[in-house]
Amino acid sequence: MLTVSKDLFGTGKLIRAADLTLGPEACEPLVSMDTEDVVRFEVGLHECGNSMQVTDDALVYSTFLLHDPRPVGNLSIVRTNRAEIPIECRYPRQGNVSSQAILPTWLPFRTTVFSEEKLTFSLRLMEENWNAEKRSPTFHLGDAAHLQAEIHTGSHVPLRLFVDHCVATPTPEQNASPYHTIVDFHGCLVDGLTDASSAFKVPRPGPDTLQFTVDVFHFANDSRNMIYITCHLKVTLAEQDPDELNKACSFSKPSNSWFPVEGPADICQCCNKGDCGTPSHSRRQPHVVSQWSRSASRNRRHVTEEADVTVGPLIFLDRSGDYEVEQWALPSDTSVVLLGIGLAVVASLTLTAVILVLTRRCRTASRPVSASE
Length: 373
What we know:
The chain is of the alpha+beta class. The chain has helices at 270-273, 319-372, and strands at 2-5, 20-22, 38-41, 51-54, 59-67, 77-78, 83-90, 112-114, 120-126, 138-139, 144-152, 159-169, 180-183, 199-200, 209-215, 218-219, 226-237, 249-252, 257-260, 306-316.
């Protein structure tokens, strides 16, 4: 009997039992309830292609657990790594497998757009406490990216910022393929509908700032370990009440309903339908955009009240792979340092010996001259 925790990576994100198999013959787990926290395999020691080795003090049965995540439904993304975990059954002993990761020091990249009337739209990666910009754009699957959208108004009248649409792509081009929609329908954070906990932060720090989290992911069957997130930001007057076109809505799984950052709850009902129409009063506001599609032209950046901004790349590290790099790199670095110190010591001793020899020769050569005088 083999029992596997659904929190396989220790990140709090549960894996699916259907993504697990055991051994070279890909034996499937026992049928379990979705509410259970573990996945169980019940196989014989000689089944599933397991191998056996006899040592002096033990019988060792070897196999591996394979986690091969597949996209859910019609999505094209996965949020966990493919992993092959070796397993050995030793009698009477047991072992375990653990991993760590190295952290690169790349600085995050962001783009900022300036509009005609000096409105500045920005989208930044933030630390988990929201107090500072994230120093490194690296993530592991299971982490959450903290994103902060801002509008710097200067001397402009007070404005309220909204994230109208967001799409993730493997390149900075928002029309690239594959892609994954994060925010849609004029402010519905649709990424939170699936197995993610993505949501807008409530309350917002101010009308000119909107914060939200996105559970990180990578595209299935794509070797690139990075994504870019492009968001269409827009503003309204701060005194204007939120409506179906200007809103920030998150999905609550416990209540199975949408809720807004501010404004009446019914402005989020259109998120369920996937069609947030144009309220009648918004027709009198020419700056409000009725629809924004992925094929929209980038030359709309000159419009004062809206802009497309991109943050990225978000770089994903493979936990097991980076652990191997770390384990191999550390001995190599240590060897280089020790070799350098050894060469320095040898050079110093050689130089000292040469100086002593020359000093003795000079003293020996000077004695006959003194005697003849």
